[in-house]
């Protein structure tokens, strides 16, 4: 079967080639690109979202769906709009119920990689800080030790640079924006995470004597959220065996690392 699912949105004139990472009779795991919502935006219903596009293709009999004999497809969890990486979908209602239970009781294993501004003192550390929606801006999350929900993330330094760090992140809970807010709380905002203090990665911030030609605007080396869901481990809803799904490092991450190694080692 075709290892790519090709989706398009006539309304927004957008197109995506989405890689299939894992598939069997019950599960379909895909590699979500950054900049694609998983479900409808509560503030803007016109924005393209993954599940709407998938369901539309299933209904109209798109080739990727018919060759897989897919009649049911539902997401078992979510990633933020800007986050790329593993998204697990259920092909049957019983599989969805089982997976949803695993995510709700925090029985899944999740690993992310992220590029952050700043450098932690220790190579391994944890942030255990309760999180809650902001009282006046509910689309944002903040640390709230009084009324927030229990939230815990472990971090491990993979590579250090001057002013930046590549981290492995292991969330033990699944709160909205958890990794991003936990890192902001310890002064390590995720690259290009404008909502929580992160700036895009610019070559001018790395390279001495950088000069931009007149009339040109500098494009960031990484202008999207520097967070990638690199691995997900679940218990298979039918076989009960452990299934681990990996997503390779995105090209923009690799490009950013190339320049960081060259100019900020």
Describe this structure in words.
The protein has 265 residues and is an alpha+beta fold. The protein has 2 domains: 1-105, Pseudouridine synthase (2-Layer Sandwich), CATH 3.30.2350.10; 107-265, Pseudouridine synthase, CATH 3.30.2350. The chain has 5 helices and 13 strands. Strands 1, 2, 3, 4, 5, 6, 7, 10, 11, 12 and 13 form an 11-stranded mixed beta sheet that branches. It is globular and about 55 Å long. The chain starts with a strand and ends with a helix. 32% of the residues are buried.
Quick structural gist:
Helices cover 18% and strands 31% of the residues. The protein has 265 residues and is an alpha+beta fold.
